């Protein structure tokens, strides 16, 4: 294996484990994996003894996590985002009489964290017409695989158990509102 390929492999492993890689006593941070793969910008932050900046913490009003045995009859009546697992997906999402917006996300994903306040706002705004649900992909790999989730955040709109639209990537509240209004139309 050539030296650049070995460095790229180690970089990917380092990004997976810690989000950074220490090379020659320095933190190396790639803006994203695609930039790294294209050998584009690499930022050397500081000596490895420096403190790395922390990702912003999620807002205190995150998704309500249902107990594993919970089977709500009508979810989202109070405008809360509901976090579901593989076991609850059928009852909460597929059997819902309302349009359901499902955001697949991960706790380590900053774009997903940016989307949580948007989901919260939409859950409150549309609580009579829309159920807003989140699924942690790391904890629910079966669902992520079943729905072909290849990037996060991914938002699925589901009605009567069928996916009717998909949005991949972080989007604004205004853009999601357009999707929702069009689907509720």
3D architecture notes:
The chain is globular and about 30 Å long. The chain contains six helices and nine strands. By secondary structure, the chain is an alpha/beta fold. Helices cover 35% and strands 23% of the residues. The strands form two sheets. It has a six-stranded mixed β-sheet with strand order 4-5-7-6-8-9, with helices on both faces. Strands 1-2-3 form a three-stranded antiparallel β-sheet. Residues 2-62 and 66-75 have low confidence and may be disordered. It folds into two domains: 3-47, no CATH class; 64-184, Glutaredoxin (3-Layer(aba) Sandwich), CATH 3.40.30.
What keywords describe this structure?
globular; 185 residues; 23% strand; 2 domains; Glutaredoxin; three-stranded antiparallel sheet; disordered N terminus; 9 strands
Q: Based on the structure, what is the oligomeric state of the protein chains?
A: single chain
Taken as a percent bin, the fraction of beta residues is 15-25%
- Fraction of residues in H or I helices: 25-40%
Tally of discrete structural domains: 2
The rounded Rg comes to: 19 Å
CATH topology heading of the largest domain: Glutaredoxin
Distance between the first and last residues' Cα: 56 Å
Number of helices: 6
Q: Largest sheet at a glance?
A: 6 strands, mixed
CATH architecture of the largest domain: 3-Layer(aba) Sandwich
What sequence of helices (H) and strands (E) makes up the elements? HEEHEEEHEHEHEEH
Low-confidence stretches: 2-62, 66-75
Q: What is the general shape?
A: globular
The overall pLDDT average reads 73
The side-by-side strand order for the widest beta sheet comes to 4-5-7-6-8-9
Derived from helix and strand composition plus strand pairing, the structural class reads: alpha/beta
């Amino acid at each position: 294996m050539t030296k650049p390929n070995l460095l790229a492999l180690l970089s990917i492993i380092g990004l997976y484990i810690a989000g950074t890689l220490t090379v020659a006593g320095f933190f190396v941070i790639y803006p994203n994996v695609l930039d790294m793969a294209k050998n584009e910008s690499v930022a050397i932050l500081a000596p490895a003894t420096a403190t790395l900046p922390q990702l912003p913490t999620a807002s205190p009003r995150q998704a309500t996590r249902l107990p594993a045995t919970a089977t709500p009859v009508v979810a989202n009546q109070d405008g809360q985002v509901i976090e579901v697992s593989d076991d609850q997906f059928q009852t909460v999402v597929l059997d819902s009489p309302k349009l359901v917006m499902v955001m697949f996300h991960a706790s380590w994903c900053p774009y997903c964290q940016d989307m949580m306040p948007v989901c919260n706002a939409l859950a409150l705004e549309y609580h009579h017409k829309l159920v807003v649900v989140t699924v942690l992909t790391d904890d629910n790999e079966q669902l992520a695989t079943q729905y072909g989730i290849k990037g996060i955040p991914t938002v699925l709109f589901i009605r009567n158990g069928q996916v009717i639209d998909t949005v991949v990537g972080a989007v604004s509240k205004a853009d999601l509102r357009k999707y929702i209004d069009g689907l509720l139309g």
